[in-house]
Amino acid sequence: MFAVATGFVVGLVACFTPDWQYGVVMLIKYGVFIFLTLHSTVCPMNKPDCDIQMGTSHVFLLGFLAVLVFRFASSRSHADAFVTFMLDVVGLVYITRSLSILVSFVDDDIRILYRKLLIALLYIVWASDTGAYLVGKTLAFFNYPYYNPLAAHLSKNKDYEGTVGAIAFGIVAMIGASDVLDLPGSFKTKVTYTVVAVIAGRLGDLFESLLKRAAGVKDSGKLIPGHGGALDRIDALMFATVVFSRYYALHTYK
User: Fold this and answer.
1) Tell me: the pLDDT tens digits for 89-103?
2) Contact assessment for residue 92 and residue 100, using Cβ atoms and an 8 Å cutoff
3) How many structural domains is the chain composed of?
4) How confident is the model at residue 251 (pLDDT cuts 50, 70, 90)?
5) In the chain, which ranges are E strands?
6) 44: number of CA atoms within 13 Å, CB side?
7) Which of 5, 15, 151, 240 could form a disulfide with 201 if both were Cys (CB 3.0 to 4.6 A apart)?
8) DSSP 3-state assignment of 56?
9) pLDDT of 223-249, one tens digit each?
10) Cα separations (Å) of 99 from 30, 83, 234?
11) Domain endpoint, select from 57, 81, 106
12) Both 7 and 93 in a single domain?
């Protein structure tokens, strides 16, 4: 059911791409994502020993080769094919791989732990975004003159002051989620992973700003009025997911 529903959406979106070649590449990437999702139902990440011969690395390699062959077969020049292929690789790793991590932990034996940690991750990401916003507004209200941008050439709104606020709010969110959801791990472990996850999320924001700057657009789309596209809402989540995966593995590997 999941494959049918998402396949319909991806197929519909592919039909509205400005270039049919990008539509084909999108379908290839979707195929890789679906295989990774189905693979995770048999071989969750917390079970490294599986009977399936084809692993996730093989799937990515096949996806890379499929995109490479298609680009060189459909492009007018090898230079154009190479540039577009490298951009496709970035998209495949950035979006497909990071989102596939979220579903690659699913194990029927410990699904409750997975759900708890996923909820905690969402709390942390949302709270850190809120914290950075509130700190920025508060400092602006008091005419704070000493802003220190993280990367002014990418985003003037991302600064160290906001990052400190994001970390503080993220820690509070983790403490609250840990108390409500009874998460495993020591206090030190939870705080450490939260700090790293928030920093990773800020880097995710900057990376998406880099992509938008390269594309010459303000937002990744117009799906959410006033907030841009879906990627604008989950850019931090995708980077923080990598940290979440390590926390999950820490409490599931035996």
Assistant:
1) 887 777 766 766 666
2) no
3) 2
4) low
5) 149-151, 155-159
6) 18
7) 240
8) helix
9) 777 667 777 888 888 888 888 777 776
10) 11, 24, 10
11) 106
12) yes
| Single-letter residue type at 252 | T
Coil vs helix vs strand at 105: coil
Amino acid at 248: Y
Token readout for 174 is: 């983790």
CB 70 within 8 A of CB 132: no
**Is residue 46 over pLDDT 60?**
no
Amino acid present at 93: V
Nearest CA-CA partner of 102 in 3, 240, 205, 10: 240
Model pLDDT for residues 140-179, shown as the tens digit of each residue: 888 888 888 888 888 888 889 999 999 999 999 999 999 9
Identify whether residues 43 and 150 lie together within a single domain.
no
Same domain, 135 and 226: yes
Same domain, 117 and 230: yes
Contact (Cβ atoms closer than 8 angstroms) between residue 99 and residue 235: no
